[in-house]
User: Fold these one by one.
Assistant:
Number 1:
Amino acid sequence: MGAPSPPLTQAVSDLHRAFFTGIVLGVVARRGPASAAELVFAVFRRQQRERFLPGLAKLGLTGLPHAVACAQYHYLSNRIGGVSVEYMRESDRKAWIRYAPPRWLWWGTALCAIPGEVSRAMLRGWHAQNGVSLGNPRLGFVCTKQAADGQNGLEGYYLEHDHDLAPEERLRFSRGEEAPDFDPAQAPWVPAAEWPEERLRKAHRGYAMEYVRTAIQSALEVFGPDEARHLLGIAGRQVGMQHFHMVAEAAGGADPGALGFARWMRAVAGATGESGLWTEERDGQVRLGQSGWALMRGVSHLHPAGFDCWTALWEGALAAHDRRLEIELEQRPVGAEGPISWSIHARRR
């Protein structure tokens, strides 16, 4: 199998982005806005702890004034991930970040169903924590707009105050302020020689997959394994059904039957960075396997329900491909490690 095509890599990115959005919307619909906000806070708090300080160093921002470093971090990391984002520096102590429409995270009409408190939870989980991570108790974030509230984007600025901030002051709202105009010539960017188009495509894919990775981990912690399996399982099956044909088109089509679906799964898995992929036909059924689980590589102490949440995505895709087939797990990974295999065959019930 050759390298994944650019359209397939993008389609796989969009599939994972849709899965994350579907998870949040599913929790809003089935448990309410407060539970969805709790989940989103946990997702962004986890990402901030794991990614922020290493990301500053990787992007070469550690020597900048803290407000500027934070705004540049969000600009670069999100833009590398394919997000529409703007950056405006006013001074060493004040720098803006604006997530312009269309919002990447709340894709398409999903924005209409995102409660404002869910968007605020994202800011509480990440933006309000950067000063703490930097050891700067005077650094906070001021939000001036939220697209989830019907305003023309999510925007605000990092501000280094003249006094230490109490925990409740690290995020505040000032809806009467307006961000300066964005001038791309004044914004930082990564060297083109170090970030060719293929690397950026893979970064888009990794960015979207990271949201699913942390959503599964966070849902297990917030809701417990049984409820996480239920909530994310429904979302995964729905998203898989809705996006199968889009991904199949990007992969050059999907042949009918169990073997056709196994080949589709192999193509998708290859586009996510999986290795050791294999397919075989035996006794009227098709077996499909892979050597590991790239999405959760390096994660320790993962509850088995996390794998079930992820597998629901492929169950939904198969339902759209051929509703008279089923996919059955034969070998599950131990936590996030070890080989995986499924069989795809006619429904037995």
Number 2:
Amino acid sequence: MSTAPTTTKPLRIGPFEVGTPVVLAPMAGITNVAFRRLCRQYGAGLYVCEMITARALVERDAMTMHMITFDPDEHPRSMQLYGVDPRTVGEAVRMIVAEDLADHVDMNFGCPVPKVTRKGGGAALPYKRRLFAEIVRAAVEAAEPAGLPVTVKFRIGIDDEHLTYLDAGRIAEAEGARAVALHARTAAQRYSGQADWSAIARLKEAVTSVPVLGNGDVFSAQDALRMVDETGCDGVVVGRGCLGRPWLFRDLQAAFAGEPVPEGPALGEVARVLRTHAELLTEHHDEDKGVRELRKHMAWYLRGFPVGGDLRRSFAMVSTLAELDDLIGQLDLDAEFPAEAEGPRGRQGSPGRVVLPEGWLDDPEDSTVPAGADVMHSGG
């Protein structure tokens, strides 16, 4: 195992020093307080909650208020905010400050989901340079009195013909963002194909006064070291790589410290982690919803292990903790971690045309807030 690159140092996000330069990417329906606690038990880093919409927060939507639950010992409390209207974003950040809801705000400009880009949000928004600048400025100005750092995450662009990341990085830096993160894919790629790490290197050359974080295709500790080595980025953002594998943060901590990366866990340890995840989800929701939420994680946890098809299907349909315990009892707990469990995981899908508001590409300097774009629902 190679040692950490000599350039690796603790990541500084405003007043916060993150000992291991690793950030958990916000993932809808995944990075709730239960999953974040599980990941934090394995290693240092910055752990970001699910995406929260500014409008839903301001309106105190009940589901959104539940989603911003943090552990008492979680620090810094990191909230990702989505918004398309500078006024709403400013109001949301002022609320976060006034009510001490978080210690760090990460702005989402990377979501490629059609229901978001159709309204000019997510990965579509940085194309509108003035509007993008106004949103970042509104968040930074609202956060400044409390010293809350604001960071900004975005993609390479809408598609290969409309690249926005270099402008987005320079604008975010100029408006006071304390770090920028690049998912090195276009919105049109979604999660398919290969991330273009060379774009991370170019962004690092363009943005010089704040940390630049790289995101995309970090599925192992070795991937993270290689990304830092090849691009010069200041840290890595990990999303799909930790699905069903929260111990990846243990591996990352070891790798960045120049220590040997531990072997993957046997099925008995994986089962213990899975059972803990179920308990934490039950604590956050209730047993019925918590165990149902766990179903989506089953294929990731069991990937590559010698588990028969019938048993896999039963895990995917589990509905109670007692039933889960019965299923775990049917596993070969001594089975070693398989090579098949390594590599890419999570949704990949296929590229597609990005759905945009009518006339969206006509004028990148137009700062008009898209009609009906201020959505209420978080986590999308």
